[in-house]
Amino acid sequence: MSHIIAPSVLSANFLALEKDLEMVNKSDAGWLHVDVMDGVFVPNISFGMNIIKHMKKVSHKPLDVHLMIVNPDQFLKEFKEAGANILTVHYEACPHLHRTVNAIRDLDMKPGVALNPHTPISALEDIITEIDLVCLMSVNPGFGGQSFIENTYSKITQLKALCQRKNTDVHIEIDGGVTLRNCKKLVQTGANVLVAGSTVFKSENPGAAISQLAKPIENTVEI
Ligand code: DX5
Ligand code: ZN
Predict the structure, then answer these.
(1) CA 213–ligand 2 middle distance (angstroms)
(2) Which structural domains are found in the chain, ordered by start?
(3) Residue 188 is inside which H or E element, if any?
(4) pLDDT by residue (tens digit) across 171-206?
């Protein structure tokens, strides 16, 4: 498979979460994307470790946990215990980012760093070799169902160039507004993880939507 699809549970049916997670288990999804929002870093509140613990009991997919919270350092161990495999923190929320990503790795999780749409790729210059994933926010974080910001393509290209210059490799994850229409161009530009909330869970056939998004894509542009 040329890229990974990570359905975002934020758009699932919380009254039938088990059923939705079982659908994801049977699908072509590679990971399950889990959005944690604190109402401070972003203007919305989602759920915390207790719910993630329950998700972990049902999900067979690696949990890709995206923390949209201030002071994530105080909860890293709890997210590990809840079942996170990949733990992504926001550049904008971490004054001691180097310490935070190393603490995540010491807890045996894969560290990721998310960038808000206005944060330049150059902010990753001195951290890129320490992390496994960069999450490029292609909407302003806080809500599902928003429109994709086109400047993201240019950020993917810049991020690939940074990785090449630093002789390192990271997962390039796109989060927000991913659709059946833009998925191909995103992968061709260099993304290899696509998060999809509404495109999957608002579809009449979520499993088929995941398969469509996951279809192998040829002619990836090399830089
Ligand atoms: C937004 C979240 C996303 C969200 C994506 O703050 O980080 O993961 O669930 O939802 P869609 O795919 O609907 O834009
Ligand atoms: Zn997310």
Answers:
(1) 17
(2) 4-219 (3.20.20.70)
(3) helix 183-189
(4) 999 999 999 999 999 999 999 999 999 999 999 999
Four-point Cα dihedral 154, 138, 206, 4, nearest 10: 50
- C-alpha 49/C-alpha 12 separation (Å) is 17
77-86 per-position pLDDT tens digit? 999 999 999 9
The token duo for 31 is: 């990971």
Confidence of residue 2 (pLDDT cuts 50, 70, 90): confident
Write the pLDDT tens digit of every residue in 39-58: 999 999 999 999 999 999 99
Q: What is the 46 CA–ligand 1 centroid distance (Å)?
A: 12
For residues 179 and 199, the answer to whether their CB atoms sit within 8 Å is yes
Q: Is residue 223 packed enough to be buried (19+ CB in 10 Å), middle (13-18) or exposed (0-12)?
A: exposed
| Kind plus residue range of the DSSP H or E element containing 80 | helix 76-82
Tokens standing for residue 176: 């927000």
Chain-centroid distance, C-alpha 140:
13
**Tokens standing for residue 68:** 């949209």
Which listed ligand is nearest to 152 at the C-alpha?
1
